[in-house]
Fold each of these.
Amino acid sequence: MSRPAVEVADILRAHEARFLDKNRSWLSFQQLTVLRAIARCRTAALGGHLDSCSRCGHQAISYNSCRNRHCPKCQTQARQRWLTAREREVLGVPYFHVVFTLPHELNPLCQRNQTLLYNLLFRSSAAAMLEVAADPKHLGAEIGFLSILHTWGQNLLLHPHVHCVVPAGGLAPDHQSWVHPKYAFFLPVKVLGRVCRRKFIRGLRRAFRLKKLQFSGATGALAAPKQFSAFVQKLRRQDWVVYAKAAFGGSAGVLRYLGRYTHGVAISNHRIVAHEGDQVTFRWRDYARGNKQRLMTLTSRRVPTTFRPACTSSRLCSHSAVWILSQRLPD
């Protein structure tokens, strides 16, 4: 694959100083480390070594990589090592792909309560699948799965959702046989959505009752019990989106898929089309409208002082490298 014309590192080096001047107060040490690593990757700042051809004597300098897991240029080898380690863990059966998405009304609350609400999403989606799968009406089996959190969409806006990779079936209650799914897409998604919604809202109410939720800015009014209750009622009236894809072709397909998600970054260098002055243009796929590829141009000049990170975990703090591109708050 050829080197892209524009890289995330190029944009960081051009705008990092101004971005940090306005936003350093809320960036964590870890996020600052990621920004610095990506900007310095494969430059003289990290040192290098001299390669020399034993035949013709030609010499060239190779600069060292930052090896940060969030760097778009340092993922290939790490991904391959991870895939090799996982090969012995998958089963020799087809797999399904199930996605649980939070309603966008929760986005402002997620920004201010990331650890609490993302953990709640993990627990609620997992408990929903275990409960529905155990019901003899739907499967009547014990299942296992892998869950991976994503907090952004292709357009780089906040979009919290959990990807679950699930074997096609599970163990019978007596653990003596394998139970095959009754449905084309493993479990009924509407039932999964209702159960996940119930469990998440129950956990959300409990967090409010125990005063574990943080409210500020756009969510400040929700600190009042009546306002919070009305907000929860609105969430209860919605159909929570659960999406299921057809089964993968087998364990090899599962591993390839997981490698893209566990060692992916918010945006790859090859999606960036142009960087001219303060304008950055990148490609994104509009999944809501026929999976069409579109272009988006954003400015790096407007940096809102109220902007807060969309994630805190080490897996997702590569988002900080993209804020310089997007500079936008979700609606």
Amino acid sequence: MLDFIEPLMNVHLAVPDLFWPESAAVPAAPPSERLPALETLLARGRRTAGAEASFEAWCLARWGVPDAGVAPYALLADGGEPGDSFWLRADPCHLRVSRDHLVLVDATLFDLARAEAEALVESLNRHFAAARIEFIPLQPERWYARVADAPVLHTPALAAARGRPVEGRTGGDEVRWRALENELQMLLHAHPVNDAREARGELPVNAVWLWGGGRLEALARRPFGRVRSADPLPAGLAAAGGGSVLPLPDDAGRWLRAAPDAGTELVVLDQLRAPAGYGDYASWVERLAALERDWFTPLLDALRADRIGMVTLHAIGAGGTLDAETTRQDLRYFWRRPKPVAAYAR
């Protein structure tokens, strides 16, 4: 009788904004450094295109709930109990005046202490108790709102809104919620926490970005046995589906020492999202080089050494997704010549 040999692990790397957004400006002389490991994975892998236009949409589609809201799954990962309530992400942010419009700045560009977050939320809850809206700061930089009546409201995800002119919401309840947001801003503007922050030269938290509303839904699929992510959405989806949620190491070397030999694991590398959102090309290039050094090169070496069975790269951006599935056998196809990363964006 032949012994059953368990297949080697398939690691999925989800990398939002791996390609510089087409809508963002690029310096006249972009850097010429090549990324050989990333270029090899893209060139030798079997590439397919997907239609999801954001990381959030990609996650929800993978778990089979494309129309679900982000908030209840993120809340679950942050230690909350979604129950059957309707939840919104209610992220603290700063609205900055720029010429004739407002620009949203999120907590990736400022620090907010837990005591500050709790003091701000206490005032909001006192004011909005009659409206049956409860704010919960599970993380200092990530809040949630439980609402009694589910609003008909469509708002861009925080990552899509950061660094850009603030656009109006759409939906049947847009007027009512715009008035609510105006009340929020007035309360926050006059809050002692913000007075103290401005006195220290820090950005005040003068707005809350409401988005991702929904109720917890049963998942249709369990695509990954294990998930490692600093973003709460894939972690919450994994937890809701009975998968394992594990710490995200700093680099692939530490990950390889801790990872099992078999199974399917998702690793979310979202370091490029904030610089892409704010149009910070220099930081984006620097972080991409770090991903090449810390993740793509060690994983390519592990694939060559037969330590892992497959690397599946998911490049996710506003124009859609590009998936590249690479095995050790694929690395032998030398005629699939690597090209600069930007060439694959097209």
